Amino acid sequence: MDAKVQQTIDILAEEFPEPKSELNFNSPFELLVAVILSAQCTDKRVNIVTPKLFAVADDAFSMSQLDLSVIEDIIHPCGFYHNKALFISNMSKDLVERFNGEVPSDIDSLRTLAGVGRKTANVVYAVGFGGQAIAVDTHVFRVANRLGLVHANNVYDTEKQLMNVLPHDKWSDCHHYLLLHGRYVCKARNPQCGKCPLTHLCEYYAKGEEN
């Protein structure tokens, strides 16, 4: 493994010694719903909304029976509630019809569910089932490219390049390292370079783009 990559992982491991999702959930189904809701929404807001939703329906069977209007009304604060409600409803029906209501534990099956793309499937596989996957959201995309771990123009290429440079047994941890670092330090606007422990390894900082 490249020395820069190893240094980056070691430093981020010290910064975030127990990397994990900040979404609250009690089952793979609740996690899947929460991840769908988290698109273009903060985990904090999702965690406010999901207890209200799961109090009404906390499994695929009960969720698939809810009227869309009920789901929409509850998840409205998460934004894009029409699409998200439809995704959650159709995903729940898929689970009932094809998987006996259980969330499948493999990425390929997860990706066949309504409203579940690569990122969502990777998160559920990694967080819900302990698998190794790199889910690339806006934070991971930004941090990986700023550091120079990858040089990619889209999330798919970022995922593929990260899979090539990061050790397989660290994929899920590294996903959280990059995500959390992006959320709290390497922000999209006004990145906190002054308190970042990675500036000596960062291409973005070397170019002076933080100014």
Number of strands: 0
Task: Tell me the domain tally.
Answer: 2
- The CATH class of the largest domain is identified as Mainly Alpha
Q: Biggest β-sheet, characterized?
A: none
Q: How many helix segments?
A: 12
CATH superfamily of the largest domain: Helix-hairpin-Helix base-excision DNA repair enzymes (C-terminal)
* Average predicted confidence as pLDDT: 96
List keywords for this structure.
mainly alpha; Endonuclease III, domain 1; 0% strand
Report on this model:
The longest helix is centred in the middle third of the chain and has 19 residues. The chain has two domains: 89 residues, Endonuclease Iii, domain 2; 75 residues, Endonuclease III, domain 1 (Orthogonal Bundle), CATH 1.10.340.30. The model has no long low-confidence stretch (mean pLDDT 96). Helices cover 59% and strands 0% of the residues. It starts with a helix and ends in a 5-residue tail after the last helix. The protein has 211 residues and is an all-alpha fold.
What's the quick description here?
The protein has helices at residues 3-15, 28-37, 43-56, 60-65, 68-75, 81-99, 107-110, 118-129, 138-147, 155-165, 171-184, 203-206. It is mainly α and 211 residues long.
